[in-house]
Specification:
single chain; 159 residues; 0% strand; globular
């Protein structure tokens, strides 16, 4: 738990934060938790990770087209390896997904999984489509209201 001292209302006012939380709610629990920890690796020691960047990074990681189990394992292994490096003194944040890609290839080789896309069934870019993991009725309602608000503001095509 992050024990953040920011009011939930403040996060609700940030569109990218709402979209990220909505996206996380559609994922299997293990993938969602691992992805949140992974996103933390992009945060510098002096600055918070901007919500729009976190959303973009999450979408990019999910768009890699990995099986949910492979993605979860690769995210977890990446986090553990990077935390070990930080304990050893290398505190630089990640800049891209290259390390995650290498870890995912390793996980696939170990498990014998083919790189066939599985996570692509998720609505990672906010487009209409079926989700592999149905969100709760509350999350679904919030996402629908946000979509209506965006349409009313003329923001068609945005997630």
């Amino acid at each position: 738990m992050c024990h953040a001292e920011t009011a939930l209302e403040a996060w609700a006012e940030e569109a990218a934060a709402r979209e990220l939380f909505g996206l996380l709610a559609t994922l299997p629990d293990g993938v969602s938790r691992a992805l949140v920890r992974y996103l933390g690796l992009f945060r510098s020691a002096k600055r918070a990770l901007a919500w729009d960047r976190a959303l973009r990074l999450a979408r990019e990681a999910l768009a890699m087209g990995l099986d949910a189990e492979v993605l979860e394992a690769a995210l977890a292994e990446t986090v553990e390896a990077m935390l070990a490096k930080r304990e050893a003194g290398d505190v630089r944040p990640l800049e891209n997904h290259n390390y995650l890609r290498r870890v995912a290839e390793s996980v696939q080789a170990r498990t014998g999984c083919t790189p066939a896309p599985r996570m692509d069934a998720l609505d990672v870019h906010g487009a209409a489509g079926e989700r592999a993991h149905k969100p709760s009725a509350t999350v679904d309602g919030v996402l629908r209201l946000e979509a209506l608000k965006r349409r009313a503001r003329g923001e068609v095509g945005h997630a």
